[in-house]
Amino acid sequence: MWVEIKDQTDIDKLLDSFGYFHDSCLRDIYISTREFVDEKLAMHFDNRLIGLLLFQRQCEPNAVLELKFEEIERFNFLPFNETENAVIYDTTLIVKNGLFYWADFADWEIGDNESIWISGKKLFWRFRPELTGNIKRLKEE
Predict the structure, then answer these.
(1) Residue 14 phi/psi, 5° resolution?
(2) What is the pairing mode between strands 117-127 and 3-5?
(3) Alpha-carbon distance values, 5 to 43, 58, 60, 111, 126 (Å)
(4) For the whole model, what pTM was predicted?
(5) Counting runs of H as helices and runs of E as strands, what totals does the chain give?
Protein backbone atom coordinates (compact mmCIF):
# COMPACT_ATOMS: atom_id res chain seq x y z
CA MET A 1 0.00 0.00 0.00
CA TRP A 2 1.36 3.41 -0.97
CA VAL A 3 1.91 6.02 1.73
CA GLU A 4 1.63 9.63 0.56
CA ILE A 5 4.22 12.18 1.63
CA LYS A 6 2.57 15.53 2.26
CA ASP A 7 5.13 17.62 4.15
CA GLN A 8 8.56 17.76 5.75
CA THR A 9 7.36 15.76 8.77
CA ASP A 10 6.42 12.87 6.46
CA ILE A 11 9.80 13.19 4.71
CA ASP A 12 11.64 13.03 8.04
CA LYS A 13 9.74 9.88 9.05
CA LEU A 14 10.58 8.19 5.75
CA LEU A 15 14.25 9.16 5.94
CA ASP A 16 14.45 7.81 9.47
CA SER A 17 12.76 4.51 8.57
CA PHE A 18 15.07 3.95 5.57
CA GLY A 19 18.28 4.99 7.31
CA TYR A 20 18.59 8.22 5.30
CA PHE A 21 19.38 6.01 2.27
CA HIS A 22 22.80 5.19 3.76
CA ASP A 23 24.51 2.26 1.99
CA SER A 24 21.75 2.02 -0.58
CA CYS A 25 21.68 1.85 -4.35
CA LEU A 26 19.15 2.85 -6.98
CA ARG A 27 18.21 -0.55 -8.40
CA ASP A 28 15.42 0.26 -10.88
CA ILE A 29 13.89 3.30 -12.55
CA TYR A 30 10.59 3.17 -14.40
CA ILE A 31 9.07 6.20 -16.15
CA SER A 32 5.59 6.21 -17.68
CA THR A 33 4.89 9.23 -19.88
CA ARG A 34 1.65 11.06 -20.67
CA GLU A 35 1.62 9.91 -24.28
CA PHE A 36 0.17 6.68 -25.65
CA VAL A 37 -1.39 5.23 -28.81
CA ASP A 38 -4.76 3.52 -28.47
CA GLU A 39 -6.16 0.47 -30.26
CA LYS A 40 -7.24 2.64 -33.23
CA LEU A 41 -3.69 4.04 -33.45
CA ALA A 42 -4.79 7.48 -32.28
CA MET A 43 -2.25 9.44 -30.25
CA HIS A 44 -3.27 10.66 -26.78
CA PHE A 45 -1.53 13.03 -24.40
CA ASP A 46 -3.63 12.63 -21.27
CA ASN A 47 -1.94 9.76 -19.47
CA ARG A 48 -0.28 10.26 -16.07
CA LEU A 49 3.44 11.09 -15.89
CA ILE A 50 4.82 8.77 -13.20
CA GLY A 51 8.28 7.71 -12.06
CA LEU A 52 9.03 4.69 -9.87
CA LEU A 53 12.43 4.40 -8.21
CA LEU A 54 13.40 1.20 -6.41
CA PHE A 55 16.17 1.34 -3.80
CA GLN A 56 17.93 -1.51 -2.01
CA ARG A 57 20.10 -1.04 1.05
CA GLN A 58 22.46 -3.11 3.16
CA CYS A 59 20.53 -2.79 6.43
CA GLU A 60 17.52 -4.42 8.02
CA PRO A 61 14.71 -3.78 8.54
CA ASN A 62 13.21 -2.18 5.48
CA ALA A 63 15.92 -3.10 3.00
CA VAL A 64 13.92 -2.27 -0.16
CA LEU A 65 12.05 1.00 -0.75
CA GLU A 66 10.03 2.17 -3.74
CA LEU A 67 9.30 5.85 -4.37
CA LYS A 68 6.55 6.96 -6.73
CA PHE A 69 6.62 10.48 -8.15
CA GLU A 70 3.48 11.70 -9.89
CA GLU A 71 3.27 14.67 -12.23
CA ILE A 72 7.03 14.67 -12.76
CA GLU A 73 8.52 18.06 -13.47
CA ARG A 74 12.09 16.93 -14.16
CA PHE A 75 14.21 13.79 -14.14
CA ASN A 76 17.99 13.92 -14.39
CA PHE A 77 19.96 10.68 -14.75
CA LEU A 78 23.70 10.12 -14.99
CA PRO A 79 24.75 6.49 -15.42
CA PHE A 80 27.67 5.11 -13.46
CA ASN A 81 30.63 3.46 -15.16
CA GLU A 82 32.91 0.68 -13.94
CA THR A 83 35.18 3.06 -12.02
CA GLU A 84 32.46 5.02 -10.20
CA ASN A 85 30.91 4.02 -6.92
CA ALA A 86 27.11 3.76 -7.19
CA VAL A 87 26.58 3.51 -3.42
CA ILE A 88 24.35 6.20 -1.96
CA TYR A 89 25.70 7.37 1.39
CA ASP A 90 23.18 10.12 2.04
CA THR A 91 20.44 11.80 0.09
CA THR A 92 18.39 14.93 -0.32
CA LEU A 93 14.62 14.64 -0.02
CA ILE A 94 12.85 17.97 0.23
CA VAL A 95 9.64 19.77 -0.67
CA LYS A 96 9.94 23.27 -2.13
CA ASN A 97 7.40 25.46 -3.94
CA GLY A 98 4.93 22.59 -4.22
CA LEU A 99 7.44 20.10 -5.65
CA PHE A 100 9.09 17.10 -4.03
CA TYR A 101 12.76 16.56 -4.89
CA TRP A 102 14.94 13.48 -4.39
CA ALA A 103 18.67 13.52 -5.22
CA ASP A 104 21.43 10.97 -4.73
CA PHE A 105 23.60 12.95 -2.31
CA ALA A 106 23.25 15.21 0.71
CA ASP A 107 23.30 18.99 0.34
CA TRP A 108 22.15 18.76 -3.28
CA GLU A 109 20.74 22.04 -4.61
CA ILE A 110 17.99 22.50 -7.16
CA GLY A 111 19.52 22.90 -10.60
CA ASP A 112 22.63 20.80 -9.90
CA ASN A 113 22.68 18.42 -12.87
CA GLU A 114 25.82 16.55 -11.83
CA SER A 115 23.70 14.03 -9.93
CA ILE A 116 20.69 11.79 -10.27
CA TRP A 117 17.54 13.64 -9.24
CA ILE A 118 13.80 13.77 -9.81
CA SER A 119 11.03 16.20 -8.91
CA GLY A 120 7.27 15.88 -8.97
CA LYS A 121 4.09 17.32 -7.56
CA LYS A 122 3.17 14.19 -5.58
CA LEU A 123 5.30 11.63 -3.77
CA PHE A 124 4.44 8.22 -2.34
CA TRP A 125 6.49 5.37 -0.83
CA ARG A 126 6.23 1.72 0.16
CA PHE A 127 8.56 -1.01 1.35
CA ARG A 128 9.10 -3.93 -1.06
CA PRO A 129 10.97 -6.71 0.81
CA GLU A 130 10.05 -9.24 -1.89
CA LEU A 131 12.36 -7.37 -4.31
CA THR A 132 15.60 -8.00 -2.44
CA GLY A 133 18.39 -9.28 -4.67
CA ASN A 134 19.10 -9.19 -8.37
CA ILE A 135 15.43 -9.33 -9.36
CA LYS A 136 14.89 -8.92 -13.11
CA ARG A 137 11.72 -6.87 -13.50
CA LEU A 138 12.71 -5.64 -16.96
CA LYS A 139 12.37 -8.28 -19.66
CA GLU A 140 15.50 -8.22 -21.82
CA GLU A 141 14.66 -10.15 -24.96
Answers:
(1) -65, -45
(2) antiparallel
(3) 33, 24, 22, 22, 11
(4) 0.88
(5) 1, 9
Bridge partners, residue 99, by sequence: 96
Summarised one tens digit per residue, pLDDT across range 56-83 is 999 888 899 999 999 999 999 988 776 6
Domain borders along the chain are: 3-131
Give the pLDDT score at 74: 95
27: left (phi over 0), alpha (psi -120 to 50) or beta: alpha
pLDDT single digits (tens) 7-24: 999 999 999 999 999 999
Return d(Cα 87, Cα 93) in angstroms, integer: 17
Q: How far is CA 30 from CA 27, 41, 52, 70, in A?
A: 10, 24, 5, 12
